[in-house]
Amino acid sequence: MSIFIDKETKVVVQGLTGEQGKFHALRNKDYGTKVVAGTRPGKGGELVEGIPIFNSVEEAIKETGANTAMTFVPPPFAKDAVLEAAYAGCELVVCITEGIPAKDEAEMYDLLKEKTSSRLLGPNCPGLISPGKSNVGIMPHEITLEGNVGVVSRSGTLTYQAVLELTNLKIGQSTCIGIGGDPVPGTSFIDVLDAFQNDDQTEAIVMIGEIGGSAEEEAADFIKKNVSKPVVSYIAGLTAPPGKKMGHAGAIVSGNKGTATAKIEALTEAGANVVKNPTRIGQAIKDIL
Amino acid sequence: MNLFEYQGKRLYKDFSIPAPKSIFLSNISELDENHELDYPVVVKSQVQVGGRGKAGGIKVANNYEELTKFSNEILGMDIKGHLVESLLIEEASTILEEYYISFTLDRSAKEYLMMLSAKGGMDIEEVAENNPEDLIKLYISPSKGLSSESIIKAIKDAKLNEDFIDELNDVISKLYSLFVDGDCDLVEVNPLAITDKGVSALDSKVSLDMNAIYRHDNFIEFETEIPIPASEQFAKEKNLNFIKLDGSVGIIGNGAGLVMSTLDVVSEHGGMAANFLDIGGGAKAETVTAALEVLESEDNVKSVLINIFGGITRCDLVANGIVEATKGKNLKWPIIVRLDGTNSNEGLSILKNNSNENITISSSMDEAAKLAVEGAS
């Protein structure tokens, strides 16, 4: 098994007619992902490299049986696109779009939770890949290898770095998943850790975080209580300059959380092996398995 | 983007939030005896740093003579490394009570958070720490919004003066509108005061969500008024996320996480980064060319590390950018390039076919960082 996607995942791409959407959808398709449809209002009936375009996600689902959406539409329209896909019945909506206003994200999250059972991954995320099965997103599949390590990260490019370190040591991955670094991610570290813990294929977990927010501290708490599989972690930003803070509301909300040191301490205390350099992730996993 | 007090107060006006009558001044020659304010007035330095009052950056003037004197003194003053380039001159208020209010997004709760306290005008973090019961926290569903009933309950829970309950309710609801409809990351008022003229927002700390710039014309105006170093200005125009640092290893990478991590690895090898520069996702050749241009104008750079892991970014386009920026040039410093991910083979062949003696290709992030640190020493 893998988490969230598998060989049967059927993808509808929102924004398939755009440059980025087309490039990555076709890469996903070449990899073996079932990219069954694209949407673009007003362009229904057209074909992009053999993939049928529909005016709406609802139509695409009806005609092709798509169950997952991948969203590339620009920020001003992204909220409506994600909601459209979820309301139409997609179980998973992977939103790649970067630069969506926080208010749109907060509203979108709230509505999805209240009105649907869909899972949103992202926004501003690289998507997810289950090597050998399916790639839904923009991760370079060349660096992946099918296997037993689950990888979860807030950062896109750092995810790739971690995956490469594993693959270089011939350690494969069950699913690699980027949750995105935006203020309101649809899927949290905890959601993914929970899924990896319950996934038969996954034997160990790599979790990559970065400074800011308190998602890593919350994940550490979850690991301590609920995760029995070994976790290797890396936190980026130990030497990053502190950001300019304004007002006191942020400080009151986050308390002492947010620094690399606080996150490393929390994860170490939860039993994770926290490495200080991302290039050591592979070796740390190798030592465990 | 953090706004100056006067900018936040301009937004107050747009949302009909009551604040003292004021004039704005960036040059002493703009001061006019026939201004429309009633004395006494408060001369407030416009700097983005706390403690400006204690540093002498806020003074009360009782007549034009004092106003001129204090304005002259405060303009150009250095407050904790911040140069005072403008003043906000406001009618002084007779304060009866001081409250604290803020709106922000609580990232863990994934809801908006309103905090309200009767203990305004002082260090609110101290109140939160020592008397948490005096700070009312109200979580707001982003899709449902803030109801009048919730505001009234919060006012009562926070023990604000109920004689002003309708006025407070109205002002709080307008502050919430500013926070949501104005796409603010933060709206904080300390103090929100009861004055002899009614409820008044005496200070403003407003931070804008720049992702929403496309739906607010005034964001661009505000942005142009906030001074930033020339190199950061150039980088911004080119859509690069650039922060100047003190070290000697110039860093260019894609994705904030990878760039931060590159800083960490450079530090582990005994070096120090000269900057943080994220070319973002999906960068084109000209983005990379611009990134190298930014570093060329930085004197502290002694070597450059380009660390790219392609996903949405294509390594072939990055390589084209590097070639474009360096072709036929006598480079000031060695460049270490590491390319992995989407189209990395194409990218590496482009670099090999256009070889430059100052450019070294490295196959791993760790080795690249090590070479860049050596190159800088």
Q: Can you offer a commentary on this structure?
A:
The complex is a heterodimer of chains A (289) and B (377). The model of chain A has no long low-confidence stretch (mean pLDDT 93). In chain A, strand 8 (127-130) and strand 9 form a beta hairpin. Chain A has helices at residues 19-31, 57-64, 75-87, 102-115, 156-168, 189-197, 215-226, 249-254, 260-269, 281-288, and strands at residues 10-14, 34-39, 47-48, 51-54, 68-71, 92-95, 119-121, 127-130, 134-137, 146-153, 173-178, 204-210, 231-236, 273-275. Chain A has ten helices and 14 strands. Chain B has 377 residues and is α+β, with helices and mostly antiparallel strands. In chain B, helix 11 links the parallel strand 17 and strand 18. The relative contact order of chain B is 0.09.
Q: Please give the radius of gyration of chain A in angstroms.
A: 19 Å
Structural class of chain A: alpha/beta
Largest interface (CB within 8 Å) is between: A-B, 62 and 67 residues
Q: Oligomerization state of this entry?
A: heterodimer
Q: Strand order across the biggest sheet of chain A?
A: 3-4-2-1-5-6-7
* Beta-strand residue fraction of chain B: 25-35%
* Residue windows where pLDDT falls under 50 for at least 5 positions of chain B: none
| Averaged pLDDT of chain A | 93
Span of the ends, CA to CA of chain B: 36 Å
Major β-sheet of chain A, in short?
7 strands, mixed
Helicity range of chain B? 25-40%
Biggest β-sheet strands, sense, barrel of chain B: 6 strands, antiparallel
Measured as a percent range, the helix fraction of chain A is 25-40%
Q: What structural category do the secondary elements of chain B indicate?
A: alpha+beta
